[in-house]
Each structure stands twice: as C-alpha cells, then as structure tokens.
Design brief:
This protein is an alpha/beta fold and 351 residues long. It has 2 domains: 17-160 and 298-333, 3-Layer(aba) Sandwich (Rossmann fold); 162-296, Response regulator (Rossmann fold, 3-Layer(aba) Sandwich). The protein contains 11 helices and 12 strands. Helix 7 packs across helix 8 (251-264). This is Substrate-binding domain-containing protein. Residues 33-46 have a biased composition (Basic and acidic residues).
C-alpha cells in the first residue's frame, strides 16, 4: 500500500479526487478560457485534454508488484491514460517488491533514455539514489505516492493523503455519533510497520478529539489482505461486544472484515472503509450491510502522473493555474464516499 509524509507539510491540495483528476487532465490544454469547462461533462471527467498532440514522448513507468487491488489499479490507470495520447509511448516494467530488482528495472529505463520517468517505489528511501541518478541524467522523475527521501530525486511528487484519510473517516463517524452519549468506536488498521498506517491512525485520533462523547475502545492491526481482515475482525468482535462504529483502513481487508461481521450476525454499528474499492462502493450503494462509507485513496493518481509526465516532457503547465510550471508537489484529497454521492465515484472504484 502507498506511503508518504503528512500532506500538511508538503503538497498542493486540489479538492476531491474527481476534481483533482479533472484539473490534472487539463495540464496540456491550450483551449481559450471562454470555452466550456470539460469537467462539466461527467463522461469526459477522466479523459485527457483534447489538445493538439505535441512532440513524441516516451514515458518509463516503474511500480511495485501488483499484489493488491489498489496497486493493480495503479498499473491499469497508467496504461489506459497513456493509450489515450497519440504522442505518448509507455515503457512499463513488470513491477517488483524487491528493491534491488526495481532499481535494476529503473536503470534499464534510464539506459533506454526515456524522456521522463514515473516511479512508484517499493521503498521510497531505498530508491532515492536511483531517482537522483535519473535526474542527473537529465530525465525528469514524477515520484508517485511513496516519496523519495530527497526532493532533488524528483521533479514532481503526486500522491494520496494518509493522514487525511484518517481525519475524514473520524469526522464522518464523529458526525454520525455526535448526539450519542458515551459512543464507542474501534479501528481495524493496516500494517503497523508502515508509516502510512500510523498516519491514518493519527488522523483518525485527531478527528475524534473534536467529539468528546466518543471513545476509541479498541484497535487491531491487519495486513491489507482479505484473510487478515477476517481474522482480526473476528478477534475484535469477540473482544468488544458493544460499540457504535468501526473504521477499517483498507477495502481489501474490509472484504474479510465484512465476512466476519456477517458470520457473527452483527448489524448494530456502522462501518467506514478506506481506499475506494469497487466492492465497497457497490455495498454502500446497495445499503444492505454495516458498511456506510469509504474514504478514498484514489488510484487515478497514476493517470494524473502520466498527464504530468507528458506535460513536463513537452514543457507545458497545468490548465487552471497561472504558473507556467508544473507544481513540485500535489496531494490528492481523501473524499468520503457515501450512498448520497457513490454514483459520482463508481467509475474510479478498483477491483
């Protein structure tokens, strides 16, 4: 799963995931300001800017192994976006969770002299030197989500907001329970060895500070898998007989959590998920389970990274901003998807 620093310390906040995608897809637009805003047409919201093709660009894309629904969606978004540009050739690696293997894959792309690199590192710290190598070779790097240790290792960073996920999950739960005396919540976290998990928990805890009637009574870490979600949720249900809300960090492990909840016959609390899987959105739309919302960590960031890479290579900026240059850092917003707005976000749901 993705990992990066708390966005309040770096990044340009762009609004909801859909709005941020619409803005970034305008990064190569040269249309006069008087023309109709493309984002008004929902069918065009996730399409690249329909400008005249620029110079031919070869983009190298290197990500970790797609062993998780979100990571697989990252690869799919990058491929589909690149295909929409007649002036873009995408050189994509197989992906690896082995740091040495990914370094080798990126060095191969550097040796091929691609015009720009998009890199979602398996380990940002470990791959910083490779990002520096590419930048020194004159190849701009778009650092996707898991951030390098040095800003000199990338031209632009774009990624999600882990702290914001927790913050918005906590705010949503807080608003649902604000009038309930002595309300209790529990948390099904991800891998505690990852900084992103700690950021999500910190955001959640900070949000709950604004609701003195709510107490977090239990927290259990899982492993971002269906099996771990089911096992850890079963443990939480056994330990906590009475609570009002659950925040689950990840929709993949949430599939297992929902299984455990159904097996226990529990319907007396609300659940909020995380990331934005299609299965979670379908459940929210059906409104036939405890799952009432999910907080986005949009994999559409990979499509936006392709937009940015193309714009950087062609010397263009982002439509809607006065600056001529692409920003150094872009943080996407963690929107809360509920039954009221799920139709808007369904196209971004990943399997």
């Amino acid at each position: 799963m993705p990992e990066h620093p708390v966005p309040s310390r770096r990044g340009l906040l762009l609004g909801t995931a859909a709005v941020s995608t619409a803005l970034l897809t305008g990064c190569t637009s040269n249309e006069p300001s008087g023309k109709k805003d493309r984002s008004e047409n929902p069918d065009d919201r996730n399409a690249p800017a329909a400008d005249t093709p620029g110079k031919a660009v070869t983009i190298g894309f290197a990500g970790p192994q797609a062993d998780h629904g979100w990571l697989n969606a990252i690869n799919d978004n990058a491929r589909s976006r690149a295909k929409k540009y007649p002036d873009v050739t995408l050189e994509i690696t197989e992906g690896s969770n082995d740091t040495a293997a990914q370094i080798g894959q990126i060095q191969t792309l550097i040796n091929k002299k691609v015009d720009v690199l998009v890199v979602l590192p398996a380990d940002g710290k470990a791959l910083t030197r490779t990002g520096l190598e590419a930048m020194r070779a004159g190849i701009p790097v778009v650092n996707l989500d898991r951030i390098f240790d040095s800003p000199q290792a990338y031209r632009c960073w774009i990624g999600g907001d882990n702290y914001g996920m927790g913050l918005n999950a906590g705010r949503y739960i807080g608003e649902q329970l604000k009038d309930k005396p002595r309300a209790k919540v529990i948390e099904l976290a991800g891998l505690d060895s990852l900084e992103l998990t700690r950021q999500r928990t910190q955001g959640f805890d900070d949000a709950l500070k604004n609701y003195p009637n709510i107490t977090k009574v239990a927290r259990q870490a899982a492993e971002f898998t269906v099996e771990s979600g089911q096992a850890r949720m079963a443990q939480l249900l056994q330990a906590e007989a009475d609570f009002d809300a659950l925040w689950n960090h990840d929709d993949d492990q949430g599939v297992g959590a929902l299984r455990a909840i159904a097996q226990d016959g529990r319907k007396d609390f609300l659940m909020v998920g995380g990331a934005g899987a299609r299965s979670a959105m379908d459940a929210i739309k059906a409104d036939n389970s405890v799952l009432k919302a999910t907080v986005l960590y949009p994999p559409t960031m990979a499509a936006s990274a392709i937009d940015i890479a193309r714009a950087v290579a062609q010397g263009k900026g982002i439509g809607g901003l006065s600056e001529l240059e692409i920003p150094a850092s872009i943080t996407l917003y963690s929107a809360v998807v509920t039954k009221d707005n799920v139709d808007q976000y369904l196209p971004t749901g990943f399997n």
